[in-house]
Every structure is written in structure tokens, then in C-alpha cells.
């Protein structure tokens, strides 16, 4: 995680306001990532997936932070879906690092 100081702040601060792209959702479907899709409120336009709301609970309500944020024994935060994280997370840069 180059450039990440692993404080978890971005996942806590922005986790409930993020959106998934239609490509994210297609990728997760192809990869059979039902664990991720269970936390995405998928939006449709004219019957086509247009994107989705990250992160939601079973009732479709947004949660306060990313459900895949993990605090480990070394007291650092890790992304539990790093290899499959949403595009919006990939584009994020850490202000603390710069």
C-alpha cells in the first residue's frame, strides 16, 4: 500500500459516502465476490446497472465506515478487500503521506 500510513482515517471518514462504478459491480459479479456485493446498494437506470452506494447494511442503509476495514495486532488498519477494492478507493491518496 504505497503512500498509505495505515491510519484508517480515509475508510472511516469517507466510507459511508462512496459510490461504486458499474465496472466495479461487473468485476465483483464476474469474480463472484458476493461478500462485497452484499454491502453495495446497486442502482439501476432503464434496467441497467448504473453504479452503487458503498457501504450498506442488509436493509440497504449506509453504514458509518467500510465494513472491510481491519485493525490488526500491529495497531495498523488494512483493507480486507485490497485486491478487489472499488475504483474510488484506488484513486484516493493519503494527505498524511504527502
Outline of the structure:
This protein is of the alpha+beta class and 98 residues long. Helix content is 24%, strand content 21%. It is built from 4 helices and 5 strands, in the order H-E-H-H-E-E-E-E-H.
The poorly predicted ranges are none
Please summarize the sheet with the most strands.
3 strands, antiparallel
Oligomer: single chain
Provide a count of the helices: 4
**Beta-strand proportion:** 15-25%
Output the radius of gyration: 14 Å
Strand order of the largest sheet: 1-3-2
Terminal CA distance: 14 Å
Number of strands: 5
Q: Which structural category fits the helices and strands? A: alpha+beta
Average pLDDT confidence is 90
Name the overall outline.
elongated
Helix content: 10-25%
Order of helices and strands: HEHHEEEEH
Key words describing this protein structure:
98 residues, alpha+beta
